[in-house]
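Hey, I was hoping to borrow your eyes for a little while. No rush at all, and the record is pasted right below:
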Amino acid sequence: MDWLIELFTAGGGVAHTVILYALVISLGVFLGNKIKFGSVSLGVTWILFIGILAGDLLMRGGVKENAAVLNFIQDFGLILFVFSIGLQVGPSFFTSLKQGGLKANGVAAGIVALNIAVMLVLYYALRNVIPAANNLPMMVGTLCGAVTNTPGLGAANAALEQINQIHPFAGGVPVIANGYACAYPLGVVGIIGSIILIRYLFKVNFKTEEEHFNKKNNNEAIKPHLMTVNVFNPAISGKTILQVRGFIGRDFVCSRMLHNGHVIVPNKETLLNVDDKLYIVCAEEDADAIVAFIGPVVKVEWDKQDVPMASRKHTVTKDSINGKTLGSLHPSSMYGVNVTRLYRSGIELFASPSVILQVGDILTVVGPEDAVDRFANKIGDKKQQLDKPNLLTLFVGILVGIIFGMLPINIPGMSMPVKLGLAGGPLIIAILLGRFGYKLKLVAYTTNSASLMIRDIGLVLFLASVGIKAGGNFVDTVLNGGIHYVWMGFLITVIPLVIMGIFARIKWKMNYFLIMGIMSGATTDPPALAFSTATANNGIPSVGYSTVYPLSMFLRIITAQVIILLLCS
């Protein structure tokens, strides 16, 4: 049995390290699945707490871990985590900043700014009163825990390591994970409590809020609308579909046409005649204008006409199609089909000829069966190809991201150049690849399960490493004023959320369900989102969450580094 005891106690060995991580992660995941406070769970954050416990026990047992190995696993886990997040949010990052998302992202940015402001006020106001508040790096860790943002903690850690290489800290690199661990539990409670407080402050009626949202926020600009119209306007008789599109000034797709009792698949050069029946797909906001110009809506049982039409969904899987516009494929003129709708990331979109196709897009194709099959072969439709991981994009992106993260940026007034580091660099490159990767012939598509696997592996490795490293002095931190990080973290959480929640409701008249999602997304807190969706009993909070999450995550990571580099160097 000596070999087994030695396996657990001989620190530094490969087998010992793997066993340690396996124990910490498995126990943390188990507790995250089993322990809930009401409907709220801390999830994988339990790994951090188990890691702290393990680190404390190892220190007391005199077992020394290999610091270089722990640092490598921590940094590699962080890179995988933030890179997968970047690929996930990349397609929606820039879109979320436009039009309808501006106010939502404004509220989220306000929450981020106020979080930092409250942290700095506590630091400068209490540093001569409470010894614990005099430690700015620890206050940054508390800030990250208060808003439940693990990537921010990683970015701050990386910035501290960068400073330590040039100007070594007297007592070694501050273990800011202790502040994070102290603030995190009440951070989750504070976020959910703030959401509940806004509800009671404004006496929100759930049924009314849902009705108002559905009326006001129906995205007619992209939602496809299907209808059959009868050509009634004699002015367009003898004109092509392309000409009619130009007359109306609205885009639409005519997938089927009933002419003299026969069904055909029209193209842009097809001539229209009075009493033709057109099966049209357009954006909802354009439907009234099309009807007013062409003719009234009528009912036609298309499946009972003389020429049966196939309407099937096919998936873009060919790399050669990635980045091309739908119009460049000439589906109607070359293949005799029409593409009416497009599904991307679970969202149904109107298939405009100008839309840029990406691998993983699902197209609704209408036409004769043999023509639909030919077009399916053109775009690939080999779904098994999507199961293959795009390792080239992953590691090329990580390579470029690390190089970009190590690029020194000289800012006037700072004693040392700023670097985006191992968190910021890969994050930005991943966002750009997720949005523009097709221009470099790189496929950024990853199946949802694969993306979640990469993200979660990176996260658990990072949390376990941080916990094990922090465990050695966690108890001393708590005993020497660490309890102050708990209530300071709670204030950092609650004050900004309540202020911006009230502002969003009074100034911008935002829907309460949307505010719930924005508050959850601004703090990048999945437990709060789970609570919000369960409470609302609809998907509206998820809309707010997904709208602000990309920008919020970006700001959390970047600002954590900037604070450290500006005030701690």
